[in-house]
Known about the structure:
The structure holds 2 protein chains of 2 kinds.
Chain A: H1 2-35, H2 52-57, H3 61-92, H4 99-111, H5 114-124, H6 131-138, H7 155-180, H8 184-192, H9 197-208, H10 210-225, H11 229-234, H12 246-256, H13 260-291
Helix pairs in contact in A: 1-13, 3-7, 3-10, 4-7, 7-10, 8-9, 10-13, 12-13
Chain B: H1 2-23, E1 27-42, E2 45-60, E3 64-70, H2 75-91, E4 95-101, H3 104-116, E5 123-127, H4 130-137, H5 145-150, H6 153-156, H7 159-165, E6 166-167, E7 170-171, E8 174-178, E9 181-186, H8 187-192, H9 201-213, E10 217-219, H10 227-250, H11 259-273, H12 290-295, E11 298-304, H13 313-316, E12 319-322, E13 334-336, E14 339-344, H14 351-361, H15 364-374, E15 377-378, H16 390-400, E16 404-406, H17 409-412, H18 415-430, H19 435-452
Parallel strand pairs in B: 3-4, 3-5, 10-11, 13-16
Antiparallel strand pairs in B: 1-2, 5-14, 6-7, 8-14, 8-15, 9-11, 9-12
Amino acid sequence: MVRLRRNFLPFLFLAIPILIYIVWVIGPMFYTFYLSLTNWDGLTTPTFIGFRNYQRLFNDSVFFLSLTNNMKWLVSFVTIPVVLGLGLAMILNRAIPGEKIFKMSFYLPMVLAMVVSGLIWGWMYHPRGGLINNVLVGIGLLERGPGWLSDRSLALWSIIIVAIWRQVGYVMVLYLAGLKSINPEFLEAAKIDGANDWKVFQKVLMPLLMPVTVIVLVISVIDSLRAFDLVSVMTRGGPANASSVLANYLYIQAFNNYRMGYAAAIAVILFLISLVFIFIYLWQVMKNELEY
Amino acid sequence: MYRKKIFILIAVVMLFSLILSACEPERIVETVVETVIETVVVEGETVEVVVEREVEVEVLRDKEVLIYNSYASDPAPREADAEIVEMFMDEFPQYDVIHSTIFHEDFKQAIRAYLTASTPPDVLTWFAGERARFFIDNDQIMDISDVWESEGWLEDYPAGFRALSSVGGNQYFLPTSWYWWAVYYRVSVFEDLGIEPPTTWDEFIEVCETLKANDIIPITIGTKYRWTTGAWFDYLNMRINGPEFHIDLMLGKESYEDERVLAVFDAWRDLLENDYFLEDAAAYSWSEALEPFITGEAGMYLMGDFIRDSLPPDVIDDLDFFRFPIMDPNVPIGEDAPTDGYFIAANSQNPEAAKAFLAYLGSVEAQTYNAEKLGRLPTHTGVDRSMFNEAQQKGLALIDGADYVAQFYDRDTRPEVADMGMNVFMEFWDNPGDTARLTQLLAELDAYRIEVFGLE
C-alpha cells in the first residue's frame, strides 16, 4: 500500500501541471496547426483549404520583409548585447568604487515593462520635441533631426537599439553570476604560470563561462524571434511594414485583418524556426549533462 | 502553525464574503397593486371587504443585467457615453447596465471574439455600412425590425439611414450619430496672412504656397495609425474621378490598376513633393499631429469633426472648416460622413433588455443629449435642429450639398483590402517619386482585391 502510494503520488502531483500544460500550451499548439490549414476569419466556421495559406505566404513580400527584419534583430542581438554585457561584467566583477550602483543602473532597464520602455523611447525619438533630436540640434551636430521612427530605413534600427539597451544589463547579470562561480584558484594558477590578462580571459575564463554563453545566446535568439511589444508600441510595424517583424505581422493579420488561418500559418513558421534553436540548445545542455 | 491556520481562515472568510456579495440580488422598490382582505367595522357590524390598494413593497429581485461594450474611448465621448447609460438606468431602474469602454483600436480587434463568445455583450457600438453588413451577412447581428417598428423609427429616421441599417427589408442596425469630414483651419492664421478659405484646387494650392512662404506647415497629418491617409485617398479619388468610381473601387468592382487611380496618386505626389505636409508624419498619431496645429505652426488638417474633442477651448474658438476643394467642377461632389451606431448581438442572452436600451439610445432624448454634448449630428429627425450650433449647421449644409455620401476608406471596403491599401499609401508617401514601385504596389493590391472579393 505504502509503495503503491509512493509510486502513484508523483504522478498525482504532476497531473495538474501536465493537465494545465496540455490545455493551455499543447492543445492550442495543435489547434494552431489545424487553423493554418483553414481560411478561418474569426467568425464563420473554418473551412479546410490545404496548404493554400503556406503557398500564399511564400509569395508574400511583407512576410519576407518581416522575416528579414527578424534576422537583422537576431544577428544584432547575439552580438552587441553579448559583447557589451560580458565587457560590463568583466569591469564590474572587480571591487571598484560604486560598483553596486553601476550594476543596478545597468540592470534597471530590464525591470521596466517592455511597453513602458517603448513609450518612453517613443517620446525620446519624437522628431520635433524629442530628447535625442533636441540634443543633436542643440549641440549643432545636425540642422534638423531625423524622424527616427518615421524613416523607413531607420525605424527598425531605432527599435533594435531600445531592445539592446534593455538586454545588455540582463546579459551582464548572467555573466556576473557566472564569474562569481569560477574558482579564483584557476586564475591565480594561470597568473603564476605567466599568462597575461588577455590569455587568462581567452584560455581560462571564456571556456569556464561557456555554459553561461550558451544560455545567453539561446535567450537572445528566442527573445529576438518573439520580438513584438516594442514594435507594436513604437511603430506598429510601420511605416509601410518597414519595421515589421513576424510576431507583429501575424498579430495584424489575425486581429486587424481577421485572417486567422493565415496568421496561424505565420505562427507555425515562426514556431518551426524557434524549434531549430531550441533543439540546438537542448542538445548542448544534454551533451554537457552526460559529461558530468 | 496556529497563526497560519488563522490566516487561512481569514482568507477563506474573505473569499466567501466576496462571492456572497457578488451573488446578492439588488433590491428594487416597486409599486405593486395588492388585493387585501380587510376587516372593517361598519355601523357596529363586522364586514369583510376586498380592497385593492397600492403599496410600496421592497421586492427582492435580480435587476435585469445588460452588458454594453463601447468603443467611445476618447475623453469627451466617453463621458457622454457614461452619462447616457446613467440616464437610461435612472429612467428604467429595472435594468442594470454593465458598461465597458474599450480602447477604439482594441475594440475593433476584439469584436469577433466578443460576438462568438457564448455570452456575448448584448449591445455594442459599431460602424454603419460595410463593416456592419459583414456581421449581418454572418448572422451575428440581431434583427431589430420590431424595435424600428414600435419606436416609429421607420418614419422618424431619414430614408438614407434606414437603407444603411437594412438588409433584405429588415433592420439590423441603429445609426445614432454622424459627422462630416472637412479641411479644418486656424482662423487667426488665415486672417493674419489674408487668406480666404479656398474652394477650388488652384486656390487650395495657392493657400499652401502662401502658408509655406510664411514658414507655416500648410497641412498637418499624423499617419502612425495610417487611416488618416485613407481620407486623402477618398477625397482625391472622389474629386478627380467622382464618387461613383470611388464606391465601385471600394466594393471591389473597379481595379486599382485603373489609370484613374494613377491620376489620384499624381495629384497626391504634387502635394508631397512640394512639402505641403508635416514632415515625419509617420511618427505621430492623428492626435499627436494636432500639436503644431494647436501652436499655430500648421495651418490645415483634413479631419473628421471629432477633431473638436481633442482641442483646447481657445483653439476651438479659432477653428473653422471648408469643403475639400473641388478639382473638377463637372464631377459630382462626394463627401465622407461616417455614421456610428449600435447593434444587438445575435446571441444576446437578454434581448428584451437590450432592445429596451437600444430604444432609449435611438430616442430623441438620448440623441439630443449627444448632439449637444459632442456636436455630432443626430439621425433622428425629431431632434430640434434649431439648437444646433454654428459648426453643426455648417456641417449639415456641407453634407446636404453633396451628391453622394461615403463612409470612410476603411469602412467602405473590406478590412483586409483597406489594410493593404493603407500600406500602399504609406509606402507611396515615403517615396512618391518612385512610379515603378507604385505600379508594382498597385498590382499587388489589385491581385489581393480580386482574391478577397472572390472574383477569381
